[in-house]
Amino acid sequence: MSTDLNIPNQNTCSHPTAINGENPISNEQEHVHNKLNGKVNDIVATLQKGKGWRGPEIFLHKGFWLPQMLIKSLLTIHEYFHPKPNDIFLAAFMKCGTTWLRTLMFATANRHLYKISDHPLHHTGPHSVFPSLDVQIFLDQYSVSKFDNLPSPRLFATHFAHDLLPTSMTSSSSTCKFVYVCRDPKDALISKWHFMSKIRSKELTPISFNEAYELFCNGVSEYGPFWEHVLGYWKASQESPEKILFLKYEDMKKEPSVELKKLAEFMGVPFTTEEEEGGVVEEIVKLCSFENLSNFEVNKDGVQMFGEHVAVENRNFFRKGKVGDWENYLTEEMRDRIDSITETRLKDSGLALGLTQRA
Ligand code: A3P
């Protein structure tokens, strides 16, 4: 499979694609597209610029760093996306376990439809099982209505910070739910550096680890700062636990069955006693395990298209799948700096994350 991926420059907002390539873009749609692009250009002109990890610049929008394309997505979500009462959004900072959670949520919600031995995950990339709101809405903002045809509960993934999303999704009166997964920021940094390096344009000089480390610590990172992202969802989960399930990658690695049962309960599809006794929980855990998924052909050789032009090889979503890989990259000084930022930022929040156990 070719590794010559065609990822558009995120600093320009490309033209929308016709739905399934069949419907020509109407004058009205063209008008909306131009209006949105105009708004985005006006917004971006006022924002502080930063260095994007995969090349294009990123902009500090309402406290979070985003490429221009994602500012347009956000605007589109605010203007065109209509949440339904039982929608469930999987949210996470980049590289904190979205791929894993996607498969677990999909397999759990649809467990009555598919046999494990012949499950769609055997031949479907994890990012195809339900839409990424951030990307899909940007590429197809005129076909938001096609989301209406998704089976209920509709599942979506997003990396946007809680504070950036519309209140129709986040307010306590909305009945949408969020599953948030977070991770030790040191592991998120390592994972993100590897991932962004792989999808970075080959025409650019690679981003060095030290450079990525500095940017991450300074909060200059797509969808970042990491800590504010986590805190937004954490605080909301404390205020409305029935609306936001807050999970940690490390807990999931340690006790996947326990965490999966929590997830199913939260999604409104708890495992029955018969299912538990019949081993269904363990079957889903095994199906979605790193070892299993990463060995499927589709995840070794397949490519995930995010619309017409954005392609990422599925193998890039699976690296090591381990807790604590940061030990292979960070010096003691680097580790202490991230731990100390984490301690300071999360102070008094009641959340402990990734602090290194010292002897
Ligand atoms: P590493 O780079 O540390 O290996 P995301 O899915 O949010 O992009 O996060 C990617 C991280 O999750 C990567 O971490 C990847 O290897 C890991 N991952 C992917 N699938 C997984 C699975 N089924 N179980 C555990 N970890 C998984």
From TrEMBL:
<dbReference type="InterPro" id="IPR027417">
    <property type="entry name" value="P-loop_NTPase"/>
</dbReference>
<dbReference type="GO" id="GO:0005737">
    <property type="term" value="C:cytoplasm"/>
</dbReference>
<dbReference type="GO" id="GO:0051923">
    <property type="term" value="P:sulfation"/>
</dbReference>
<dbReference type="Pfam" id="PF00685">
    <property type="entry name" value="Sulfotransfer_1"/>
</dbReference>
<comment type="similarity">
    <text>Belongs to the sulfotransferase 1 family.</text>
</comment>
<dbReference type="GO" id="GO:0008146">
    <property type="term" value="F:sulfotransferase activity"/>
</dbReference>
<protein>
    <recommendedName>
        <fullName>Sulfotransferase</fullName>
        <ecNumber>2.8.2.-</ecNumber>
    </recommendedName>
</protein>
<dbReference type="InterPro" id="IPR000863">
    <property type="entry name" value="Sulfotransferase_dom"/>
</dbReference>
<feature type="domain" description="Sulfotransferase">
    <location>
        <begin position="85"/>
        <end position="350"/>
    </location>
</feature>
<keyword id="KW-0808">Transferase</keyword>
